[in-house]
Every structure is written in structure tokens, then in C-alpha cells.
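INFO worker-7 received task bundle
INFO bundle size: 2
INFO processing item 0
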Amino acid sequence: MGYLESKEHREFRELIAQFVAKEMRPYHEEWERDEGYPRELLKKLGDLGVLGLRVGPEYGGSGLDYWYTVILCEELVRSYSVGVSVSILAHAEFSIKVIDDVGSDEQRREYLVPALRGETVWGLGLTEPDFGSNVGGITTTAKRVGDDFVINGAKTFISNGSIGDYIMLAVRTGEAGPKGISLVIFPADTKGYSAKKLDKMAVRSSDTGMLYFDDCRIPAKNLVGKEGYGFGYIMDHFQGERLVLSCFGNGVMEELLKIAVDYGTSREIFGKPILSHQVWKHRLADCYATMVASKQLTYHACDVLNTKGDANRELSAAKLFSSENVKKIANEVLQLHGGYGAMNEYVVTKLYRDVSAFTIGAGTSEIMREIISRTMVE
């Protein structure tokens, strides 16, 4: 079966490619230095209509399927700014999509509509200082007091955490374990809330924050979906996150190979271009085969997700393969550059750093293997 070959897919890819070439790639070095990007970029993406690809038109979305998410992610990372790409999808896919899926009509109109326009910035508050992969163990509490929730606790490694206007926040409203978790919409201007930007090695152009909640009071109507159902909502939406990370990895692989060919055909060693030497021809051939295999694995997972609505095993496999192998290909391309690969002026150096976190975000490689293995023996 062929993927992404329709006229509509090609036109959408060209639309995003043109946007990236004009509005993103020229500024990737500036955003890396500034450790952030202008909020106007999100507004431009909202005007382009890509922040709500799978949201219904009645709320300002496009009503499309996951294939368009694949295209968007593959093209965004061609900007050389992986951090900004992560920030965009943390807003559009990780944080606000749950409002469309299980939120009330009032919540969709009050929060989702402006978010799709890029007028507000959202983050997803899951990971805590003591709980990462074990989502069911989170300890940030939300206690019901009259018509409010009073929230106490902390979150860490939160994309858009210190710049977000809102956090889609996972809190404990009930008993220990997964059944006691709920999701709430948390406004960043709430009294008692504070956030600190974290200093990272990789994806420096995106904001990653440490969040603190000290007797923060929010309306109980900010509960998203049913109380105590948050863990299930999170697990369902992890599928979209893993598709995003897989596509980011695939897009970066493709860009790394273009960089390798450009450098390897222009840089000479022993009197001839690097890629005239058989050892590097073969090493890049292996990289190309890996990239193609990773894309096809991801496309298969997307096809299952679109047709069945559940592709947990397939997406876990795609995310595992893509995130592990983009790091290997980045290492190969860095090695091809020799000493120049250690120079910050070369894009390969930044991409090498940026992909280092791909095996951690949206579920570590160890968790992906656990999910896959469980489906094989159950």
C-alpha cells in the first residue's frame, strides 16, 4: 500500500515546506541562541490552519486524519529547529487535543478555539520530579473545596512549561494508582503558581519548565472529561505523541542524509571527495536503508491508527525504532564531518544534540519495549 501519495497530501506538504523555508529555517540559529522563538510564529501557524488538523471545523479545525500530522512533523524539523517543532506539537497535539476529544462544548469554545488560532500557548503537565514513566504514581494533588480544586505539587520537564498560558495538568483527585488521576485546565495566572525555565543540553530553542503549585485554586468546572479517568485519557493520547516523535526522527534522518551528501561530495580527503571512498558510500547506504525502514514502520503504524483508532503496539515499535536509529545516523553523519562535527557552526552538531532526547520523550525506549513485549505474550 502506498502512503501520502494523494494530490491533497502533496499540496499540504508543499504548503508546510514553503512555510518552513520562509518563516522558520532562516531563524533557527537565532532561536537557538535566544533559547526560544517569537509567539507570533504560533499565530502564523494558526492562521495557516495547522494547529487543529484533526479538530472539527465547527471549532476552527480542519477535520483531517493522522496522515496530515505525519506530513506536518516531517516538514517542521526540516527547519533545523527541533526544539521549536517540539514546542509547536506540544501545544497542538500533546496538550489541547484532549479538550476536543473529551472536553465539554463550553471548554472547546472557551479554550480550544483560541488555542487553534495560536492566541494562547499550552503545555502538558505530566512528569514529576519523582515520577516520569510511572504516570500512575503522580502525587500532585487536587482536592475538592466547594466549587474549586486546590492544587499542590510540582511538575518537571514540561514543554512550554514556563511560557504557557495554560497547562493541561494531570492531578491526583482520588485514591493511589491510575484510577485516582484526573485532568484539569490550569491557567498560568493562578495565584500560588510559579515556573522556572530549565537549562538543557538539547532542543534549546524550546521552553522546558519546572512547575510549582502552592495551594493553587481553580474552578472545578476546569475538570476535563470525567473525574478519575485521566490516566486512560493520557494513555490514549500518548499514541499521538509517539507518532509525532517517530515522524520527527524520520524527518531529521532525511535531513541528516542530505547534509552528509552535501558535505561528503564537497570535502576532500586523500585527494578526492569523502564520498568517493567506499567505506563512506556503504555507511551512508546503511543509513539510507534504516531511514526508509523507519518511515515505512511509522507509516504502517499511522495507517493502523487511522483505520482502527488504536495502534499502541505499532506506534511503540515505530517510536522505538525511529528514536534509536536517528541517534545512530546523527552519530554517523557527525563522524563523517570529522573535527568540523564538533563545531557549533555546523547544523549536524545541533541536530546531534537535539535527537539525544528522542529515546526519552513520549515514553522511553525501555517503556516502548515493555509495551511491545506485553502485547506479544498476553
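INFO item 0 finished
INFO processing item 1
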Amino acid sequence: MIFTTTQSSSFKAEFEELLGRGKMDIAHVTGIVGGIISEIQKDKNRALFEHIAKFDNWTPKCDDDLQISQESMQQAYENLDEKLKSALHMAYERIKVYHEKQKPQSWFDTEANGTILGQKVTPVDSAGLYIPGGKAAYPSSLLMNVIPAQVAGVENIVVCTPTPDNEPNELLLAACHLCGVTQVYKVGGASAIAAMAYGTENIPKVDVITGPGNIFVATAKKMVFGDVNIDMIAGPSEIGILADDSANPNHMAIDLLSQAEHDEMASSILITPSQKLADAVKVEIENWLQKLPREAIARKSIEERGAIIVTQDMDEAIKLMNEIAPEHLEVATMSPFELLPYIKHAGAIFLGHNTPEAIGDYVAGPNHTLPTGGTAKFYSPLSVEDFMKKSSIISFSSAAINEIGEECALIANTEGLTAHEQSVRVRLK
């Protein structure tokens, strides 16, 4: 664990290491993933069967074995504990309400001369959602990917999830039923991305692929981009915290660990101008680690990719955090909203002492599929717009084209495009 101040001689090198935290050795797996994609494109289901046998330790007996039945999803839902069922329904409703407010609208403007300009917003026909599965399954990720697609109006939603030993995660199946998903396939990894990008005998080709995954999934998404759209290239999870003396060290410690327990590659970074808080949080982290079932994972993450940075003041802390551009950013200060205008780069911003990152993972409403590794500088959270596309609308009357057509023809002539020029001039009086 890096515990340093901006005044230390080694700080610059340590901070550069933090900025490079999201780099994945994609080149190392590109050849493997490229081979998988090629095999799916060529042999479709036959290749899928081979990949499933190799990576998930079971072999489908026929094409129908790839798909999870609606009956099994309904049964999993009915078997849910009532309190958990209620919690999932509450999460669904809150996520849906939030995303409904994101839905863009078509618009049209009419000018006095009869020109009509506008924008038509249309959902994509189909979306493929990749949801990690197996022993660690995340029904919350299913909700966060399905709901914005549904709100957008996508008619054909396909879900792929790995099922090691042909044992689908019951909680994930229950969430599928709750969301009304009907096409769920027992396919994982790069194979699933390729299947959704190019189609097989069972799995339809989609227009956009979203959802988290490991380096093989991320690499596959990057390689099929252009043939389909994707949401983002997401890496290991991360949290950044800006805090002052008003923050509770115990809360800050467990909030940092809430990301560290995801996997060894997760990053947890606290930046504060308070040496007292930094020292206290370091102690509390050790206390909490000894209580966590996933201690080994969290400890390795904290030791290798965690950081507590003590700055001269909050201005410097904000500057450093903007450079990091974290996936999740907690602002645990006396007056968090006063700092909000100065925060430029973060996937999701959690303001105040009672807003832990975990509340955003499940029930707050905003999407938890967020840019990682500093990509919050140019990526946004998954949203309804990721499942929609825009078309420009243009309509000119005779009066309108005669009003500005001469200027258009002149520009076309200057560019040497005679047909462009004449296609306008033949309409001019």
C-alpha cells in the first residue's frame, strides 16, 4: 500500500504508477481472442461447443442446450427469499425511474422559409448483454444493463453468461425473470462476445454489446467494435475518495475495501489534506481486513494497488483526483457540493458522509457500469443513449433552397465536386 505525501521524493513515480493502473496487457491475449473470434465466425455453434467444453467444463448435447429455459428462470424467481425478491424489485424500479429521465427525444425546428431541421432518435433493433456468471454472479449487473436497453425501446435483448459445469447461477436466473428477459445463453468469455457480434445458429447477431468482463471479454469487445457498437472497454474496479477531517476513518476504510474485495487488480485511493485522517484510515483498514471473508483478495489489492495520499490542501487533492479520473468518487467532506464544480473527471460521484459507493452499485438508480482506468476523462456511464442512435432530419422548400443554394453550390464548386454543385443548381430558379 502506497502511503505518501506530495512532498516526498518518490511521489511523482508512485503517482505515475497509479495513473497507469488501468492498463491491461491486451496485446498478450489478442492472438488467443482473435483465434476464438475467427472460429466462431467460421464454425458458429460447433466452435461454441468446443469452447464451452474447454473453458466451462461441460459439452452441450444439442443446439437447444445453449439456451436457458424461461421455466427455469421463473422457478428460480419463485424460489427467492421474499425479502431479497422485494429488494430486487425496489432496485429495478429505482433504476428504471432514473433511466427514464435519460431518454432523449426527437426534435424538429421550422424556419420561416420552409426549412425543417431536426433529429430523429431511434433504438437499435437488438442488444447483447454480457453478464459475468459462475460462482460470482451479479444480478445487479443484469439490471443495470437490461433496464436502459428496455427504456430505450430495444425489441430484441440477448443475454450471455458463462455457466461452469452447466450450473447457471440461480440468483441471476431470477433477475432475468424479474426483468422479463427471454433469451439467455450459457456462453461466456470472448466466445460470447463473438457469438453476439456475428451470430450463430442459435444466438442472433446484435447491434450493440454492453457489460463487464475479464481481459478476454474486454479484448473481444475491442476487436469486434466497428462490426457492432460497444459501451466501453472496462478494466478492474476502482474507488477514489476525497476527504477532510470531518470524515469518519472507519467509514473511509471499509469504503476503500468495498472495491478492493472485487479482485486483486482493483484500485482504492484516498486523497486528503489531513494527516490525522490518513493515519487513522490506515489503522482501520487493517482492522477491517481481518474481518473480511475475501481478506486475501482485498489485502493484495490494497497492498499492490491501493494508495493514501496526503496533500497540502484540498485544491491539490482535487487536482490529483481529476488526473486519476476514478470510476467511483466519494466526496466525504464537510461541504461536498461546494467541491462539485471543481471535479471534472469521474464515472459516478457520491456526495456526503452517508453516500457510500455501494449504494450506487445496487439501489440508488444511476448505472453502475462505469468507465475505469482513467477513461472517465472521455467515457460516460452506461445509459439509455448507448442503446439508441440519432438520424439528422433535413427538409428544404423551394424558397429555402433558392435562399441559400447559391452559397452551397459555390462551396461545392470550390471543392471541385461538379455533381454536388449541379445537384443544387438544377433546383435553383
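INFO item 1 finished
INFO post-check item 1: The chain is about 45% helix and 15% strand.
INFO post-check item 1: The chain has three domains: 2-22+235-364, 26-230, 396-425.
INFO worker-7 idle
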